[in-house]
Every structure is written in structure tokens, then in C-alpha cells.
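Appendix B, example 12.
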Amino acid sequence: MKHARVAYDGLIQEATVNGDGVQLLDGRLVTEDEVVWLPPVQPNTIFALGLNYADHAKELSFSAVQEEPLVFFKGPNTLIGHKGKTVRPNDVTFMHYECELAVVLGKQGKHIQQAEAYDYVRGYTVANDYAIRDYLENYYRPNLRVKNRDGCTPIGPWLVDKEDVHDPMNLTLRTYINGKKTQDGTTADMLLSIPQLIEYLSSFMTLYPGDIILTGTPKGSVDTVVGDEVVTEIEGVGRLVNTVVGEEVLQNS
């Protein structure tokens, strides 16, 4: 099942999505174009992975071997829903997308072993973890300004139950800019798998329902500019649309 959070008629509602449209919790059935899409889950802790795909690490001239994940936090201010707008600062020269499988946890746990890791997963969604390379000072200490700007992480459109994703470690990821495919990879190429990441994180901190793990991106990240429509999609999970806008859009709104 696909679970969504939307705004409709001034109300924020939980919803499910099927072939007929968006089924609101109050019983009304509306079309996908009639709602404002919100991030599909209200996040607790947001973890983000850097360089978790061998081809992306090589693309950035880093080692394709990781003994421990390069992981950092993101704030809830970064999330924005499907069909949202993300600001490209006027002073930057390189702002690229990152199509990522987002793992949403549904159960509290600590010291979780790999063999039982999927028991703690609620489901999956699509994230586009934009990065602004101009602000990067050190790849091993990701700068807050690179990854924590308001609305810089589109996510959604919906959360898919884990039972509906047969093998999350073998899904195709693709990104399109204005209809042209610019990124094509597979979750099978992750350096550290979902169970490995859950085991690692829970080895020193408690994980909670609503925690989100952004699992990294394959190679193929290229610059985006104001006006670009960026579509990130993951096989069997969803297709997430975002538009890059200039700072003047916020100043004039």
C-alpha cells in the first residue's frame, strides 16, 4: 500500500494512493493534481549516507571501500514534498541532485542484528538529496550548508509498505532533468546494505519509528539550474518531481 500525507481544502490529511486517485482519511477520493503533497512521514532522526555507492565514490575520486558508513544528520527543515520547489542560491555554481532510496523505520530498537534488520523497517520512499558543492569544505565532515538548507531534500510522493517491495537491495534508480535521463543505477551497488546500516546505527544509539535513512546515490550527479524539472524515480517505489527555483521566488512569495 502507498501511504501519503497531503493538504486538501486547508486540512492536512493522511491518505492512501491507488489507481483511482488519492483516498483521504475522511473518505473523499480526489485526484493527484488536487492535493498538495507533503513529505509522506513526519520524521524523527534523519540519517544521510555519503559515498555509499562505489561508482559515485570513484566519480568523486574517493576510495570505493568503506569499513564504516560516512553518515551525518539532516534537519526536518530540509524535507519538502512531491512537486515542491527547491531554491538554488544565487551565488553557487554547482548544485546537483542525488536520487536515493529512503528507508523509514517503524519499530524501536537497539543492537539490531543484520538478520533481523528488516523487521524494524516500515517501508520505503524516494528522496532527492540535493547537494551544493560550492559550500563543501571537507568530504569527510559534510558541511551543514551543503545538505541542510530549507527544502533541499524532496521526498515522496508516498511511503510504500515494505511488504510491497520484494528486494530493496535490487531496485533501479533513475534521474531525469527536463525529460533527459542523467542518472541510472541500482541499489545492488550500495557499499553498505540496508541491514548493515541498521546494525551499525543501532550499535550505539536507539532507533525509533519515523527515523529515516537516506542510503546514498549512484554516479551521474550533474548540475541543475533555475527552471529545471528534476524527476527522481525508484523502481517499485515511486516517481518524485521537483523544480529548481531562484531565491527571488521566496523573496516575492
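The first helix runs from residue 54 to 59. The chain has two domains: 1-38, 41-251.
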